[in-house]
Specification:
Distance between the termini: 42 Å
Strand order of the largest sheet: 2-1-11
Radius of gyration: 27 Å
Number of strands: 11
Order of helices and strands: HHHEEHHEEEEEEHHEHEHHE
Length: 345
Amino acid sequence: MTFLQRILATPVSGNINDERYWSSWDGGPATASGMSVTPTSALKVSTVWACVGLLADCVAMLPAIIYERKPDGSRQRADAHPLYDVLHDLPNPHHTAFEFKNMMQGHLLLRGNAYAKIQPGLRGPADQLLPVHPDKVRVQPLIGGGKRYLIRDPDNVERVYLDDEILHIMGLTLDGQSGLSVVAHARESMGLALAGEQSGARTFSNGSRPSGVLKTPGKLSKDGASRVKESWQSAQAGVANTGKVAVLEEGLEWQAIGLNNRDTQWLESREFQAEDICRWFRTPPHMVGLTSKATSWGTGLEQMSVGFVTYTLMPWLIRWQQAISRDLIIAPKKYFIEFLVDALL
């Protein structure tokens, strides 16, 4: 970055009209199902938790190796390269390599971007990689090309960082400046899954059966009707009262109304939502415990592993590799990084 660019990139205050500046997604607008879906609340859906956990753990467990290209076309591990220890063992004093990659991949999956400050030190220009929560970052393109990052630091002051000071890994992007959040685009699917789960919980809370009416041939006063309702609720509602014998007096008769769970295909609907969420994360359902349907990737463990690595995991690994090559490796024609996927295959 030239001296002139550094002068032009002076610190600026945050834009108070930008919702991301004041909010970190929590309490976001409700979906059509009535549920508020944020990257945090989305993790309450077991399928989202499983998909994010699977992909984040797989990326984190794979060793990131720095290689040196030889004149004869071969390659050799560059154990002495300053980045080798940073990426393979300890990115910073606070996180192991697994924890760092796990956190960054989680940010990528839920928010579409992963950021880390590049801090020079004893191990070279990239002595430490300090992860930054994506909700604290705003990206601004520069007129002459490149971009800068406005980051709200722990002291709540927004500071400017240039593109050579930040490791930025993007998910799917439409503008080349920042990635798209899966949760933001899948809010309706995830909201429907949350609503289905809440509906099931309330069904059990209200007596594990559809709503109904108590009928009597006589006429009840307002106080009498209220007393009968409260008595029925206390005796029959809740999981603890499931299966208890109901005692009806003075000609009272229970009549259920509406459809039961089988008629409304409630369980089938929940299974469909789980599969739909898998599509958003491009994760094969059988990898997150959905085994009711056979996979089309073959029946052998090796075939399924190859399919998962090739079509789901590898695009993420390539994003990591190319971002590291661009932001961290000074001589990318001589050195390159590669994740070892042999253990998964």
